[in-house]
UniProtKB/TrEMBL annotation:
<dbReference type="Pfam" id="PF08352">
    <property type="entry name" value="oligo_HPY"/>
</dbReference>
<dbReference type="GO" id="GO:0015833">
    <property type="term" value="P:peptide transport"/>
</dbReference>
<dbReference type="GO" id="GO:0016887">
    <property type="term" value="F:ATP hydrolysis activity"/>
</dbReference>
<keyword id="KW-0472">Membrane</keyword>
<keyword id="KW-1278">Translocase</keyword>
<keyword id="KW-0406">Ion transport</keyword>
<comment type="subunit">
    <text>The complex is composed of two ATP-binding proteins (NikD and NikE), two transmembrane proteins (NikB and NikC) and a solute-binding protein (NikA).</text>
</comment>
<feature type="domain" description="ABC transporter">
    <location>
        <begin position="2"/>
        <end position="247"/>
    </location>
</feature>
<protein>
    <recommendedName>
        <fullName>Nickel import system ATP-binding protein NikD</fullName>
        <ecNumber>7.2.2.11</ecNumber>
    </recommendedName>
</protein>
<dbReference type="GO" id="GO:0005886">
    <property type="term" value="C:plasma membrane"/>
</dbReference>
<keyword id="KW-0813">Transport</keyword>
<keyword id="KW-0533">Nickel</keyword>
<dbReference type="InterPro" id="IPR013563">
    <property type="entry name" value="Oligopep_ABC_C"/>
</dbReference>
<comment type="similarity">
    <text>Belongs to the ABC transporter superfamily.</text>
</comment>
<dbReference type="InterPro" id="IPR003439">
    <property type="entry name" value="ABC_transporter-like_ATP-bd"/>
</dbReference>
<keyword id="KW-0067">ATP-binding</keyword>
<dbReference type="Pfam" id="PF00005">
    <property type="entry name" value="ABC_tran"/>
</dbReference>
């Protein structure tokens, strides 16, 4: 359904920032995949590259196949026919994805009018139904309101409703729980769990949220994919030292974390494994960048598993 092959993103600047580096992953039809990692690891840039929404200064290489079509080779006009229609985008959870000057109901109904040619009255009715599906509350009245009257959780649920209103089969979501409290996060979890028939690629820094909504997890660190496996394997039997350290840093695991996780982009070309300087299991070979090894279907970028591939 969605296959990313050797995707890299570099921003032309004084320091020539490498935001994403040789990432490959696939998302099967109907599968829910979460991309996790700390701030600055390249998660959101990866998502925007897939959608063709990066600024002109971004150098994007690799391939992104959606239903056997390479999205990176399409013109802006061709991409516009896919975005919102067959691939929908749910932006970060601050609510900035909603236009403050337009009623929420109109914004949820607009994709139906534009992409499905649904009559406006019918689209409005369906937007109210979607708001009910995602527990907005007092939906008939809420549809007539403006975004500033909504709480953070209500805004995020409205963004999800807007994202699926045109019935796109694939949803790309960027940090849908960012800035939300535990109660609001639980509401977003319920929304995602209702989308079992959709293909979802979701970026998040929240491991607990990833556990609730995904079947597979991709772990990114310093622009690299370092591990990719089923959600159960990642959370119970992680292979990469970074993934293990990240899990140990969770409050329920005692907040046992390494200091200074992130690596300066300026140092990338001088390094081998990005995590080597902070890894307790580092050895001489780690001065070289490891490829991604396949350990019985469990993908991991670590020299420890060279003999398993």
């Amino acid at each position: 359904m969605l296959e990313i092959k050797d995707l890299s993103v570099k921003f032309a600047s004084e320091h020539s920032v490498q935001a994403v580096e040789h990432v490959s992953l696939s998302v099967k039809k109907g599968e829910h995949v979460a991309i996790v990692g700390e701030t600055g690891s390249g998660k959101s840039i990866l998502l925007l590259a897939v959608l063709g929404l990066l600024p002109e200064g971004a150098l994007v290489t690799g391939e992104v196949f959606f239903e056997d079509v390479d999205l990176l080779k399409l013109s802006p006009g061709q991409l516009n026919k896919i975005r919102g229609n067959r691939i929908s985008y749910v932006p970060q959870g601050s609510g900035n994805g909603l236009n403050p000057l337009l009623r929420v109901g109109f914004q949820i109904s607009e994709p139906m009018v534009v992409h499905r040619k649904t009559p406006k009255a019918e689209a409005w009715r369906k937007s109210v139904e979607l708001m009910k599906r995602f527990y907005i509350g007092n939906e008939e009245q809420a549809a007539k309101q403006y975004p500033h009257t909504f709480s953070g959780g209500m805004k995020q649920r409205a963004l999800i409703a807007m994202g699926i209103s045109a019935d796109a089969g694939t949803i790309l979501a960027d940090e849908p729980t960012k800035g939300l409290d535990e109660e609001r996060i639980a509401e977003v979890v319920r929304c995602f769990q209702q989308l079992e028939d959709k293909t979802i690629l979701c970026v998040t820094h929240d491991l607990k949220f990833a556990k609730e909504i995904s079947r597979r997890i991709c772990v990114m660190y310093s622009s690299n994919l370092v591990e990719y496996a089923s959600t159960e394997e990642i959370l119970s039997s992680p292979l990469h030292p970074y993934t293990r350290d990240m899990l140990m840093a969770m409050p329920e695991n005692g907040l046992k974390f390494q200091t200074g996780f992130s690596v300066s982009h300026d140092n990338y070309e001088k390094m081998g494994c990005r995590y080597a300087a902070r890894c307790s299991e580092c050895f001489e070979k780690c001065r070289e960048m490891p490829p991604v090894f396949d350990v019985s279907g469990h993908k991991v970028r670590c020299w420890k598993y060279a003999s398993s591939d």
